[in-house]
Amino acid sequence: MTTYKNKIRNAFDKAHDYNRSAHVQKIVVRQLIAKIKKLYQYRPHPVSILEVGCGTGFLTQELLKLFPTAQFTITDISSNMIEYLKQNYKNTTSNIHFEVMDGENPSKNYHSFDLICSSLAFQWFENLPTALQQLSNLLTPNGYLVCSTLSEGNFIEWKHLYESNGYSNSFQQYPSIDRLQTYWPSDHGHGYWEEEKIIDRSISGYQFIKDLRSIGAHTPRNMHRPLSAGRLRKIIDQFDTNYGYTTYQIAYGIFQRFAAKGYFVTGTDTDVGKTFISACLVKLLNALYWKPIQTGLNCDPGDTNTICKLTGLRDQQIIPPLIELQHPLSPEAAAEIENIKLDIHQMNFTLNDPSKTYIVEGAGGIFVPIAENQFMIDCMKKINLPVIIVARTSLGTLNHTLLTIECLRHHHIPIAGVILNGSSNPANKKAIERHGKVRVIAEIPKAETVDARTIKDFCKKLSLFN
């Protein structure tokens, strides 16, 4: 353990008045729990949970209320914090395991967890990107890592007072929200950050300094020499006169591990070439194919049969549709005619084998309605694979494609790229990449006839997936 980490551990070991002084920490925990509740509103509850940096148990207590039957592993770098919690839960529950652990170096003995949580501990990490990679490696498929940490913009009042008096300060520099976004490991999941400003008006300058020491949060990263008592009193007096409040900038991070390897194929509109591209990807990646919702079976044999014919897939490489509807309409409209009630929350979108590669094809575009207030984009969230957008190259594609990209990003759905299907149009390709800030994976000319040979030929244009 580094010298800095030893200082952190010792500071928290001595934080005997943590519960009384950590009022901002309590606010952040409430916000974090609200986000966790929303994530699991329509999902099965986690069976195994890891908490990193438990402190005296603000988050632990709320997690136990929310998921009382889960198995918990509760950790902290401070042995005193762990002992405190052990005593609190000594005779109340048998589903908690306590362990002293540095969150940047999780135990090699751990198995995977459905949910990993941490509140206001990551700002003490020396290498947060590496830590996020290691922790995400411990997630089960579809598992979540949910955390809070300090971001750029904290304690600006105090920093201004130090600078205006010509004093150096020991406040740490925290990463911006954009910088934090680059820390997520993108190889097997997708994460995003949300930011919140908290203005703490509840304490005087003297009480702020005292509380930092009470919760063990006063350890500087550098070799900063503290101010003399006289200079510190001057700063505190100026704070009480000019400010009387402290700004906290909190970043809330949510990362989800992908359900499996593979892609969800969506389109910008109808008949844009999703099934053709799906066939190419299935053949290229030797993947399993799944069309969860199929309509229009009274007009054609359906996309699953078409894929089988084009690729020669074996039965074990086909996942049958969850819903099959006869009319060539949106799922919502077809189901209404056929007197079928659809609800995606009652459908099983689980990909059962994380070791396999899947190509999942949507029905139409991302806002095709499935039921009241339920759209294809909601299915995409549940299936949890990076998305490939299939778009035309012709006039109108910029608006359709950029709207699709913007909406997917707004809903925090990862985009693997765009495939353009049609006559070559270099200007549209360039515009999509520039305005959409996404790569065009391939441009595939529209085929006059589509058969197994065509699929084989066009697979060469998607060779970057190899």
UniProtKB/TrEMBL annotation:
The active site is at residue 291. Mg(2+) binds at residues 275, 303, 361. ATP binds at residues 271-276, 303, 361-364. One of its GO terms (molecular function) is dethiobiotin synthase activity. Pathway: Cofactor biosynthesis; biotin biosynthesis; biotin from 7,8-diaminononanoate: step 1/2. It is an enzyme of class 6 (ligase). It is found in: Cytoplasm. It comes from the Bacteria. It catalyses: (7R,8S)-7,8-diammoniononanoate + CO2 + ATP = (4R,5S)-dethiobiotin + ADP + phosphate + 3 H(+). Substrate binds at residue 295. Its cofactor is Mg(2+). Keywords: ATP-binding, Biotin biosynthesis, Cytoplasm, Ligase, Magnesium, Metal-binding, Nucleotide-binding. Its EC number is 6.3.3.3. Its main location: cytoplasm. It holds the Pfam family AAA_26. Catalyzes a mechanistically unusual reaction, the ATP-dependent insertion of CO2 between the N7 and N8 nitrogen atoms of 7,8-diaminopelargonic acid (DAPA, also called 7,8-diammoniononanoate) to form a ureido ring. NCBIfam families: bioD. Belongs to the dethiobiotin synthetase family. Homodimer. HAMAP family: BioD. This is ATP-dependent dethiobiotin synthetase BioD. It comes from Commensalibacter oyaizuii. The gene is bioD.
